[in-house]
Structures are given as structure tokens and as C-alpha cells.
Amino acid sequence: MKRLLIFLLLTFVMSTVYDMTWAQVQDDYFEVIVSKGDNFVRTEQNEWEKVKIGTGIFTGDELKTSASGYVALLFGKSKLVELKHIQPKTYKFEELVDLVPKLEQGLATQFLNYLLSKMAPESREANRNTYIQLIAATERGHEGIALFIDTNANLYSSNAVIRWDPSKNAGGYVVTLKHIFEDVIRIFDTEKPYFELDFNDEAIKGKSIVIINVSLKNDIETASGDYAIQRIDETDAEISSKLKELESVLDPESPFSHLIIAEFFEQNELLLDALTRYEYAIRQNPGVDYFNDAYLEFLMRNKYTDKID
């Protein structure tokens, strides 16, 4: 009887250890979350196969990236690895593991997971109709040109991208910057449906509030109305400390870093800062559907628009 109990106990312990080890092995793989270009994966048994979103890369596999391609991988369900090359390159699984961030990601992982959950196919499908209904039911307050910001917007950063829905046959736009007392600071033309506001510009440096108005160059009556942008204190303890923590572990040259910081700003209701980070991510690596889709989801979620032109 005693031998039987010992045998059963050993069997249970070995089974538990096996299950734990197998679970760990299953977690220690890469999942493709973004792929741009002709990128391929080869397992130990198969020929090269084109990478798809959701493709898993396991021990013994190889990944081949294309010229000017881009691949974002998630390791162990929490750590991000980005690959971007001018020339094609082939990685063994072990070489990819060497690229996994060694430092604890903390807040970066938290906001990355928020982003990934919003971009999961089931979440996007479930929310899309809701977003469209919200946009249709929302009174933006301006007929003509609608900027993708709130009529009274807060801004933490010194720079912001101001974008709006382009008008057909616009012939360009006139942007007017004003003081809070309606004194004109600057008027300039742009052919594009956006411009970048820089609070370090000598004309507005030191100003806490700037009023923006956008009109059609060939029809000044078609305009946005006034939007107010107010800088908030960059020394705000909660925002600044968490932002510094994020930036200390994120690669400033990484487009995904901008998306993670955009999620941080959105969670803190700094929507213009968030929008600007989406713009930077797309500028840094244009043509990546995931970034464009994430930006569109943000715009819809906040009732700005349901399209990007």
C-alpha cells in the first residue's frame, strides 16, 4: 500500500512538472501581429510559407524578411520585437529570442495589451457598428470643415498634428491661428488636409491657448469655426512620471512605440496627443495596414470620422 501511494505521488509530481514545462514552452514562441512586404517562415518540416497575421514561430523555425519589409512579433504574449531592414534577412528562432527586450516592460506591456485587445478581430467587429452609430448621432458643432479634435482640446506635448476631412475641389486651405482675444497670430495656406502646430514656434511660444480656424482657400465661408487648444502643465506629476517610465523602455525610432504612447495618452483623455502619435507612427513606416487601421479605430472610437483620406 505504501509503495502504491509513493508511486501515485511521483506520477502526480511528474505530470505536474510536465504540464508546467509544456505550458511554458507553449508561451515561449513568437506570434506575428504585423507584416508588411513578402516575409516568409519555415518550420523544421515545411518549405517557406508566406507570413500571415497570427502566424506562430517556434523553436527550430526560421523567419525571412523582405527588402524594406516590416514585421512586428509578440514573444511570450507580452514582449514586442520589431524587424525592419533595407535588405532581406533570415533569422533563426534563437536569433529572434536574442532580440527580445531584457528589461521589464511594466507600463509599456500594459498599454500594448490595451492596444492589442482593441485591435483583435472580434473586438473590431463587435465595436464597428457602435462606432458608426455614435458618429452619426454626434453633433460636431461645425458645418463645413470638421477638425479631428474636440472644440476645446487639451495638449500635453509641444507639437500636435491637426487633421480634418478633405473637401472635394478645395483648391487648398487657409489656416488662421489666433490669440484667445481674437488677435490674429498667423495666417498660412496648405494644400494638405492637415498641418503641424508647434508651441515652440516663436509666434506662439509661451501662449497657453491658441485658437485655430480652417477655411477653404476658394470659399472662405466654408470653414471649421474656432477650435481652442490649451497646453497643460508638462510638469503634471502623474502624466510626466508615467510618460518618462514608458519612454525609458521604448525605442524612439519604433513606430509601435508611438502606438503604445498614443494608447497611454488616450487613457488619460489627451486625445490630440494620442492622434499625433498615430500620425507619427504612420509617417515612420507608411503602408502598414495595421497602423492605418489602429488610427482609424481611434478616430471612430472618439467620434471624429469613419474614414481616413
Give the SSE map.
Elements: H1 2-27, E1 30-36, E2 40-42, E3 49-50, E4 56-57, E5 62-65, E6 70-75, E7 79-84, E8 89-92, H2 93-98, H3 107-119, H4 121-137, E9 152-155, E10 159-163, E11 173-178, E12 184-190, E13 194-198, E14 209-216, E15 219-223, E16 227-231, H5 237-249, H6 255-267, H7 271-284, H8 289-301
Parallel strand pairs: 9-16
Antiparallel strand pairs: 1-4, 1-6, 2-3, 2-5, 5-8, 6-7, 10-13, 11-12, 11-14, 14-15, 14-16
Helix pairs in contact: 3-6, 6-7, 7-8
Strand composition percent: 25-35%
Shape: elongated
Q: Could you state the order of secondary-structure elements as H and E?
A: HEEEEEEEEHHHEEEEEEEEHHHH
- Radius of gyration equals 24 Å
The total number of structural domains is 3
Biggest sheet layout: 6 strands, mixed
Question: In angstroms, what separates the terminal alpha carbons?
Answer: 77 Å
Chain-averaged pLDDT: 85
Helix content: 25-40%
Number of strands: 16
Counted by DSSP, the helix tally is 8
| Unreliable sequence segments | 4-8, 10-26
Class based on secondary structure composition and strand pairing: alpha+beta
Task: Outline the structure in words.
By secondary structure, the protein is of the alpha+beta class. The termini are far apart. 25% of the residues are buried. The chain is 37% helix and 26% strand. The protein has 3 domains: 2-102, no CATH class; 109-136 and 234-301; 165-231, Immunoglobulin-like. Strand 6 (70-75) and strand 7 form a beta hairpin. The chain is elongated and about 70 Å long. The strands form 4 sheets. Strands 9, 11, 12, 14, 15 and 16 form a 6-stranded mixed sheet that branches. It has helices at 2-27, 93-98, 107-119, 121-137, 237-249, 255-267, 271-284, 289-301, and strands at residues 30-36, 40-42, 49-50, 56-57, 62-65, 70-75, 79-84, 89-92, 152-155, 159-163, 173-178, 184-190, 194-198, 209-216, 219-223, 227-231. Helix 3 crosses helix 6 (255-267) and helix 7 packs antiparallel against helix 8.
